[in-house]
Structure of Large ribosomal subunit protein uL23:
Amino acid sequence: MSIIINPVVTEKATRVMEQNNSLTFIVNIDATKNEVADEIEYMYGVEVENINTMITPQGKKKAIITLSSDYDAEEIAGRIGIF
């Protein structure tokens, strides 16, 4: 089971990234917050501070991952090809 499906690239996701040091991803609907945190930490070598999840009106699960202040969300986004 793949936990991380794809990053979300919208104006709102970009604003959240800049203001809150957060990245937004669509994740597997069955994934728990701990599983998402572990996968993000493993894939990108960062420390996750907080995760908020929601189910979109399209039935997908969106996770907003706030990174520890030791890491820069914009740098990670550039590294994974969002920008």
In short: The first helix runs from residue 11 to 20.
